[in-house]
Amino acid sequence: MSALRYAGVSAGYDRTPVLTHVDLDLQPGQRLALVGPNGAGKSTLIKSVLGLVPILAGEATVLGDSPAAARGRTGYVPQTGALDADFPVSVRQVVMMGRYRRIGWWRPARAPDRRAVADALERVGLADRAGRRFGTLSGGQRQRVLLARALAAEPRLLLLDEPFNGVDAVSQEAIVAVLRELSRAGAALVLSTHDLQVARDLADQVCLLNGRQWAVGTPEETLTAERLRRAYGGHAVDLPDGVTMLVEP
């Protein structure tokens, strides 16, 4: 069973498509990078997988179900700005939010929930920060906490929206290590990124977006100068060692 299957999908708001002609087939354990300029529809695609943006055309299946019905089996890592750093909440409390679908909003956490939170923080290398206030952490550490929150939900599909924006090298390395571990364990991953090198190094598949799907396939097939030029509406230059650099028009 595909972790994510889109066939001719259009998604948007108020019956107005933001993104069209999307065809994807992501298997368990695979990693998909969404690449495109600002406003290309990357976040819209992620939110459509979560059932938060309507599918206007085509067929969308997430973990064998509709996007909304599968939401309890998916994890979501937003950009760090999605959670107010001034909100008086501890790191442990933020990660416990990932368990709410299992325990209910008004029920107390049980021993398995506390173990899941501790394990998630251990995996992202922040077990020693559990009692700290979330807002006192660095941007990279906050992003790792949001990843731990998603891990605590034990997702079969993990969605990450620009997970490396504003993240220091240590945190990026920690996040990448966890993502590779998750995919080896059979979880499917979808992440949006502006970093072409991250897409090349981390993804099995790349989906090139800008209002519609321009290409999908392996990084070698997709991240070519010609396809990047067409999707970005700018210029792309092939450099030595197979590297392509985008140049603003």
Describe this structure in words.
The structure is a single chain. The protein has 249 residues and is an alpha/beta fold. The chain has a single domain, classed as P-loop containing nucleotide triphosphate hydrolases (Rossmann fold). It has helices at 42-49, 91-96, 100-103, 111-123, 139-152, 169-184, 196-202, 219-222, 225-232, and strands spanning 4-13, 16-26, 31-35, 55-62, 74-77, 157-161, 188-193, 205-209, 213-217, 235-238, 244-247. Strands 5-6-7-3-8-9 form a six-stranded mixed sheet, sandwiched between helices. A three-stranded antiparallel sheet has the order 2-1-4, with helices on one face. The chain has a two-stranded antiparallel ribbon with strand order 10-11. Helix 4 crosses helix 5 (139-152) and helix 5 (139-152) packs parallel to helix 6. The radius of gyration is 18 Å and the shape is globular. The N and C termini lie far apart (42 Å). 41% of the residues are buried. The model has no long low-confidence stretch (mean pLDDT 90).
Features:
single chain, 249 residues, Rossmann fold, three-stranded antiparallel beta sheet, 32% helix, globular
Quick rundown:
With 249 residues, this protein is an alpha/beta fold. It has helices at 42-49, 91-96, 100-103, 111-123, 139-152, 169-184, 196-202, 219-222, 225-232; strands spanning 4-13, 16-26, 31-35, 55-62, 74-77, 157-161, 188-193, 205-209, 213-217, 235-238, 244-247. It has a single domain (4-247), classed as 3-Layer(aba) Sandwich (Rossmann fold).
